[in-house]
Structures are given as structure tokens and as C-alpha cells.
Amino acid sequence: MLALIIMSALLGASSFLCGIIPLSFALSKHHISRFSTFGSGILIGTALGVIIPEGIDALAEANPTQKLPTNQIALSLIVGFCFMLIIEQLVAPGAHSHGGVDLPLHSVNGDGASRLSPHTVEFDAGDLEPGAPDPAGSGFMQVDIVATEDARHSKARAYPLTFGLVVHALADGLALGVSSVSPSSPGADGTHDLSLIVFFALIIHKAPTSLALTTALLNTSLHPRDCRKHLAIFAASTPVGAILSYLFLSFFSAGATQASWTGIALLLSGGTFLYVATVLQPVSHSHSTDEGVERDMTAAVRVLLIATGMITPYLIGHVLLPDVH
User: Fold this and answer.
1) How far is CA 267 from the centre of its chain?
2) What's the pTM value of the predicted model, to 2 decimals?
3) Domain boundaries, the chain
């Protein structure tokens, strides 16, 4: 339990810290695109090479005298995949539509001049109405173009974004919590090793997701203070989901029942991971309209990053931490 709390705290803190970067610093689209692509490979490798095999092992252990419950395995994966599909398409259809969003809104362009965010607009002194008082300072003024009505609309657009990613984060927490109680390995060390692999995958995955959330919120003209609140809720969702799922499986099931529910939960998590990795790609190259990113991220580079990400969880589980299996 202590290890889970520590991992949950680190996961929440890292998500929040990554998410506030667009509020303070200029970011490279190329680096974000590469990192997100690598993260997609990590999720695929974790689902196919770690979570799904562990879920199958748990179900096999829960039914040692029976044949492998292939129906439960297939149904759990499909339900997990469909759950994220419903959330993304019906409940919060705009939650993952981050393609084409500039990173960040207040970055600096190539000639050293600051680029204005959508929150401000410039007026030259000569454009003012005759007889109007001259603006103080540098000869131009910045006026806020977001009125009270627009601010309400900004919040209305921001809520579906946050809600969709919060549900996604809760599903991530389910994977971490379930992996912490997985009975597929004898002894506590194997369980801890499995949870470490899932933790590593989530750390890599949630960094670009946090960046995507903050950038999308800024693009709705939401005030940075409110962006931090939304980000804090998102960052806390995975730790909450991890601890709740751990407590549920620990206190409301035991023995073969726990192994069965743990296996089903792992397979559900595997289905959600596969959907996120193969369908959703926050701030990914494939959704970007930036020609510079298009030229920089060639097909060979993308394949290499995804393949490297896919093999990484397998190497960790079978070479660095062989006790997992």
C-alpha cells in the first residue's frame, strides 16, 4: 500500500508539473510530437506485453481446474476498449481533439518577437478614434477581447475537455491499482515489479496528455488560473483511481475471487490502453497541421519511436525485472 501511495503521489505531481509548462515556457512541437509518439508505443507494449498477459494469468490462477476462460478475456478487452470509445465519442467528444493546437499560446517566434495569444489584440496609435486620449507607454495598447459572455462560453468548452481526460485518468489509476494487488507472481516483489512497469508506462504517457490538456484549455481562452484548477483535478484523478481500485480489490474480494476480479480489471485496463494508444494520440504528429512537424517526423522516425516504445516494457519486465513473470 505504501508503494502504491508513493507511486500515486509521484504520478500526480509529475502530471501537474508537466501540465503547467505551457503556462510558463515556449515548447517545441517537434519534441512534443516525438515524446507523444514514443508514449503511444509504451502504452501498446504495456498492454500487449504486460497487462493483458498478467490478466490472463490471474484468470487462469482463479480457475486452475478449468480451461482458460477465453470468453471472459475477450469480453473484458472489448468492454475496456468500448468504454473509452463511448467516453471519447459521446460523453466528452471534444476531450481529445488537440490536433493543430499551438504550443504554447504565448511562445516566441523565430525573429525574437513575442507572439500574441488569443487573449489579446494590438491597436496601433494611429488606428484610434480621432480625439481619443493617447495610450500611455509604448504607443499601442492591449485590450481583453474575452467578455463576460465569452468567459462563460470558455468554461463551457473547457468542462468536456477536462471531464473526458479525468475519466481517462481514472482508468489509468485502475491499471496502477490493480497491478499493485495482482496475485500472478509469488511474493510481494513480483507484484511490486508489475506495478513499477505500469507506473513507468503511465509516467511516459501522462506527460504529453497533461501538456495537451493545458494547451487545449488555453485555446478555449480559459484564464490560466482556471487552467491550473482543471489541471489539478486531472492530475489527482489517477492517484484517486489507483487507491480506490486497490482498496476495493483488497477489502471486497479474497482468494480465487480476488484473482478473478483482478484478472478482469487488468484486461479492462488493457482494453483502455489499446484504445488510447491506437485511436487517441494527444498532440501527436498524425493530427498536426504544422508543415515543419510533417517534414521532421518522417514515417521511419515514427515507426522507430513506436517500436522502441513497444519493446521497452517487455525489456523491463523480462530482462531488468524478470520476477514479474
Assistant:
1) 19
2) 0.67
3) 2-108+151-324
